[in-house]
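TICKET #2291
ISSUE: user wants both folds in one file
ATTACHMENT 1:
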Amino acid sequence: MKSILQTLRSFVTLRWITGKNAVIAVPALFLTIAFLIPFLIVLRISLSDMDTAGSPFGGLLSYVDGIVVLKVKIANYLFIAADELYLLTYLSSIKYAAITTAICLVIGYPFAYFMARAKPSIRPVLMMLVMLPFWTSFLLRVYAWKGILANQGLLNDLLLSLGLISAPLHMMNTSFSLIVGMVYAYLPFMILPLYANLVKMDMRYLEAAADLGATPLQAFWRITVPLSKSGIIAGAMLVFIPSVGEYVIPELLGGPETLMIGRVLWDEYFTNNDWAMASSVTVLVILLILVPMAIFKKYKTDQDAGERT
């Protein structure tokens, strides 16, 4: 009886709310409200009939003659698995996201390396240059590329004036314009985690490699790149994940052959008005995104375990 009273007293005085628990509870509460609950709602709609999607349980649960009946509709998922269009759309989204990630890494790594090796007095200026595009509306920046890549755009006018081409190049509404727009939009998300990783690297490793006879290129590939692997993976995830579901850039810069899953979702929701099918596609996109996140989590866990040992 005494132990029960002590337990009730500790619960009433909220002794279980420690600083560590409070710090964990805040992001957990945010993720529950901002991600888990909306995801469960979308999942419910994807498993419901269109005419019952607006009911509290979406027609999943019904009470008949004292029996609770669970009715789950998986026809949308079977249709997606059998329809070649959805498969090609998923593969196309992954392809363009992977190409964007690779190009951002090739461009962003030298820039982040230069920022990390620059004088501390000019690093804030370089950081501001990376963040400067975010001061302008994302939509305006994408529209600016329409003016640059159009047949009568700035780039074609420049090439014609220099005599490098005799006729305007067709660059808009192609895979080229799509990739250019996505690389431009997501390049800062690659640079920032790489810079944060490289700037903390212990330079004594490079000095030791030089003393042992390693050339600068050998030291870069054998020391700098392996030590910056966490930044590479983090930057790749920050670019790849939003690129898969991108809608604005494919809609404004891509053509009919650059079909991506974001445009399919828009058509299902607002053109076909089929919320159940659109929700099914959304659930599969989320599951597709969770795969690289799980890989990154496993890598971080293995890396932390290796550092402790």
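ATTACHMENT 2:
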Amino acid sequence: MNKNDLINNVADAAGISKTAASSAVDSVLDSISSALSNGDDVRLVGFGTFSVASRKATTGRNPRTGEVIQIPASKSAKFKSGKALKDAVN
């Protein structure tokens, strides 16, 4: 499922226009992104938790040349599914 499919499903399920559904989906995604960029977790009970994970700086190798390179520290988004989502998938 891609974003357009999600928008169509939301519009059908809620009985609203695709424009309104698109705005709602974009608002939810923007809110999650904003919270994560501020370092906050987003907990959706039964669905899961979005959080920010920190990765330490490390050394690696360029596979083409074998040269040792420094990989900088970074942050990435992490998702842990909730019990209801796990049960629905299984």
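RESOLUTION: both attachments delivered.
EXTRA DETAIL ON ATTACHMENT 2: The beta strands are 42-44, 48-55, 58-61, 68-71, 74-81.
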